[in-house]
UniProtKB/TrEMBL annotation:
Listed Pfam families: Radical_SAM
Protein name: Biotin synthase
Entries under PANTHER family matching the protein: 3-METHYLORNITHINE SYNTHASE, BIOTIN SYNTHASE
Binding site residues for [4Fe-4S] cluster: C64, C68, C71
Alphabetically ordered keywords of this record: 4Fe-4S, Iron, Iron-sulfur, Metal-binding, S-adenosyl-L-methionine
Highest taxon in the source lineage: Bacteria
Amino acid sequence: MNTPAIMEKLKREHRLTKEEWIFLFDNRTRQSDEKLFRMADEVRREHFGNKVYKRGLIEFTNYCRNDCYYCGIRKSNLKVSRYRLSEEEILSCCEEGYRLGFRTFVLQGGEDGAFAKEDMIRIVSAIRSRYPDCAITLSIGEWDKAAYQEFFDAGADRYLLRHETANKEHYESLHPKQMNYERRIECLQALKEIGYQVGCGFMVDSPNQTSETLAEDMMFIQDFRPAMVGIGPFVPHHDTPFKDKQSGTVTDTLFCIALLRLILPFGLIPATTALGTISETGREQGIRCGANVVMPNLSPTIVRKKYELYDHKICTGEEAAECVNCLNARMEAIGYEIVVDRGDSPLWQGEKKA
Ligand code: 5AD
Ligand code: FES
C-alpha cells in the first residue's frame, strides 16, 4: 500500500477498505496532505467551480435534555443562561436572512422538549409559506420517524444530525447512557427514507478518536452517502467533563474535509464555525481543501453568546449583516464567491412539493 495510490483510488471509486483508510490516517506527511488538499480542490471545482453556498443558521433554543460530555449546552451545565426564540423572532431572523441573500434557513436547537412536534410543524409551515423559494433545514436532534415525516410534509427539505462517531464504544465514551448509537443511526436511516437531504458528521480529534474510529466514520459515510457532511474540530468547553481535553487541529480537520470531498464529489460540506474558531483563517482553508458551504449565524446578537457549544466561538458579537460582509470579503480574497442560491445537492432528485 502507498498513500498516493490509495488517494487516486479514492478519487476514482469514492470508497476504500478499512485497511486503506487506516493506512491513510497513519501515514500522513506534509507532502501527502498537500497533494490530497489539491486533489480535493480540483474535484470541488469540477462540480461547483468557485461557488460557495451560504446557510443562515438560526439557533432558536439552547435548552437541551441531553448531556453529551463535549457540549457546552448539556443539561448538567447549570451556568448556561437558557433562552428560546419565539415563532415571531424566528420569522424575523428569516426575514433579515432573506434580505441578506440567504435561500436556506437552518433551524438548529438543543433537544428542547418545550418545542413540541406541533410547534415545529407550525414554524416550518410558516417559513415554507412565506419563503417558497428557500430551503428549510432542521437540526433538532432525535425524533421518531412519524415526526420526521410530518416535518417533511410541512415543508422541511433537509436534516442535519451528526452521527458523532460510527464506532459504538467511542459513541458511548462521548455520551451518557441515555443516548444510544443504534438509535442515532436509525434516525439517519429514517430521515433518508423519508426523502430528506440528510447531513451527518463528526468532530475531528474528539477524545478517544483513533485512526480506526475515523476509518469507521469514513466507511459509514461512503456507504450512507449523505447529501451533506458537517465536520469541525473538537473544541473544549470549560464547563463540561471534557474541559481538559485537547482541542482538534486545523490540519486534521482539513485532511478529513478533503477526504470527504473525494468520497462525495457532489457533497455539501461546510467550512464550520468551529474550524474558524481554532484558526483565524480556518474557514478559508476549509474552502480551499474541498468545502463549499459556510453557515453564518442569523440568531439575534443578544442570544448568540448563549449558544456556546465550545469555548471562544467566533462571531458571537457580530450582526448577521456583518458576518455576511466579512465572509463575502474573505471568500473573494481567496478567489471564491458566495452565491444567492438554495444550494441543493446537484444529485438531488427529490420530489418537490408545491
Ligand atoms: N466542539 C466542537 N463541536 C461541538 N459540537 C458540540 N460540542 C462541540 C465541541 N465542544 C458539535 C457536535 C454537534 C454539533 C451541533 O456541534 O458535533 O452535533
Ligand atoms: Fe462573522 Fe467574520 S463571519 S465576523
